[in-house]
Amino acid sequence: MNLAHAHILLNHVPIIGTLMTLGLFLVSLVANRKDLTQASLALFSLIALLAIPTYMSGNAAEDVIKEFPGVSMALIETHQGAAMLAFVFMEITGAISLAGLWQFSRSTKNLRASLPGRLNLSGVLLFAIITAGLMAVTGNTGGEIRHPEIVLGQQATSIVGSVGGEIIASIKHFVIDSSMWVWPVLEDLHFLGLILILGSMGVLNLRILGFLKQLPVAPLHWFIPWGIAGFFINVVTGLLFFLGMPGFYTVNVIFQIKMLTVLLAGGNLLLFNCTSAFRALEHLGPGEDAPPFAKFIAASQIFLWIAVIVLGRYIPYGEVT
Amino acid sequence: MAVPLIFKTIEESGLSSWIRDSPSVFAYWFILSFHAIGMALLVGASVIIDLRILGVARDLPLSPLKGLYGIIWTGFWIQVVSGALLLIAYPTKALTNPDFYIKLTLIGLAVAVMHTIKKRVFGDSSLTEAAMMMKGKALATWSLMFWVGAVTAGRLLAYTYNYLKFDYRG
Q: How many CB atoms lie within 10 A of CB A210?
């Protein structure tokens, strides 16, 4: 298996996943079922996470197939442009969903009962609809690269794809050529994001493990949005690094392992700290011991975030020359 | 300005060239990883204390957060040791860069502020939570600013140096 293979495996997740989750989300809103709404938000966040390796493995797939006979570079670039736009909107949808999910995990009330909750759900709905449309274009243009049987008559030219392609080019110019200070400032933000993640999730997970035991667990929940904010900053700055030097990152094995670790750590944060699964820990008062399973999750999360830091620092070591 | 010859002597030492040039996974990038983990512990734990003093997670009791100072000092000593090793690897690169001195100054200020918070906010057990927050507000704001400045100055070291090594202008 290579990364091109991974791209084929992964690429259906954001496309079909977004459409299916949007359907579930609409049903949950119409039927006013908060459990289904929560499931939809969790799915949107999870898809946003999986969209990261999906987008990035696309570059590896391009490297593999671009020399094949009958493969059009113009089609690849159109697909890439649409994919970048779909990816960006997917990440925004995921971030808003995660914020809503976090609110859900704190109270048993319906998110629709409060104004911030209603704003959140409207935001998710709006961005999910745009994302679904962009995902459809991405899937269509992607399929045309290797499936001549689906092209009827002339190949469809996608305005979305060409606009996206131009945006990719201008982002690359902005990150690499516009000023020598853009990259260092992005690196700085990436480090500050890291500190927010480690600080917020660190203090929560250390308490669950039994350090700082005088702290009740429930109010530590307030730090999770700071961790999510750090994670979002790092996804955005990380995407900008990737768009600036796609060739450098695509073939770098340490970067690939780092992305896998980010998925595990982010998925851990999403599933255990931002869903109602966390509510079981909310009753832990000062001095009380968390159940062994919660401790296991907390320890694994600390391990994964530290692994992300170490792998990030080793990326230059993994440079392929 | 002439670069002091002692930098060259340090760079020619076995330890310095091993950290800098060894292809081993336990050389330069290993130490740099520790420097990043130390930063996460030192700054991450400080930021949690600052945010709580400034009103984030208001229903979280403040005084038990004193326990985070253990993590802060652990992170601090990891930084001292890993930072010293990095300095041995690249003395000219660091010490001829004004940004390096800015970074050290900001770290000194941030650590001093954290120490003052420990003494003034956590040291007086007769204070109520509200009084602790009141007393720590300005200090916590300074701490956040100094830490952001220190991290920024540190990050910029990789982009602002004048000499990479004694006889090599970067």
A: 13
